[in-house]
Amino acid sequence: MTIAFVLASWRPDVPAGMERAVIAHAVSLQQIQAEAVIVTADPAAPLTYRNVPIERLRSLDVQFPCDDATLRAAIDASAAPVGEELGRLFRQRHVRAVVYVDALWGLGRIMQAHPGIRNVLAAHVIGHDADLQAALTRNPDAIIAPSATVLSEAAARGYDSSSWSVVPNTLLTVPEPQSHSGRDQLWATGPVRVLARLGPEKGVAELIDPIPTLGRPIEIALADAPFELATGSQQQVRRRCQALAAETPGVTLLPGLPWHEVPTWLASASVVIVPSHAETFGLVALEAMAASTPVVAYDVGNLPHLIRNGGVIVPYRSRAHSLWRAAQHLLADPVSYAAASRAAYYRSRDYWPALVANQLLKVVS
Question: Where is the Glycosyl transferase family domain (predicted)?
């Protein structure tokens, strides 16, 4: 069967969980002999990526980067032609299930019934009630979320999520196993690294402000996404981070990384810090753990469940200095570091592609 993923902002190398999760799911489905296609409105998307065909949705008139309000207005203004175009694409590709990847950005708010096709709504985040309520009135055949955190957040907002299914995100690339000597060398001298997009909720500016002396490089890769909280918000975060980094010795700000470079970059870190204020899954943490790199993060969202003993979880209320202190303690203790490194790798195996692909296929079939 062919499964279509609809996500208006999808294109390669977008520094965001939904975009990277979609291609990882599509590639993993191919590994178990299922077919997948991605439908996007971003004109920068290629015709194929990692052997997955990409279809361009031309009836949605929107420019990127884009904020939620602008996209919502564009979707509502072109709901009829978008529905017709999607129907044609689905017939051409012999689609049997469609995953609308988010009520807003995945066009779930205007999903239409197509004969012989199952509609699946993916709730990576709960988002605006206006979008989720509209999507739910369309009566999707199934609703999936990447973690139990999303189900709990939905219930707290008054939605009945008891019938929703958890289908976790997966790895786009499974890294090669790392040697013990290589990991020992990283423990001794490797850089501390942070990978995030330029959203205020990612907590990077707050992390830079109180950086202690670690005696090793601190590298922070920051990337623009085709969506933002409000027009210009990403540039505001960039300027603040640049100003703070300029006053902090040992800190290097880097541009965002292409997806294919992410696993190697995280693998060659001593520790990866995830300073997010909220995470419904935590793909950066998973990718680091798959390379045996311990992760330090706040006790927010799905991160405690995902990381467990594959790093250190600190209370969110203690703020950024506790992240640095946890990294310092981990790097000062070779026994604890080695144990966290091993645990991180074995924890990541629960999210390997073939396993997750079969979970997804079971829900959408």
Answer: 195-345
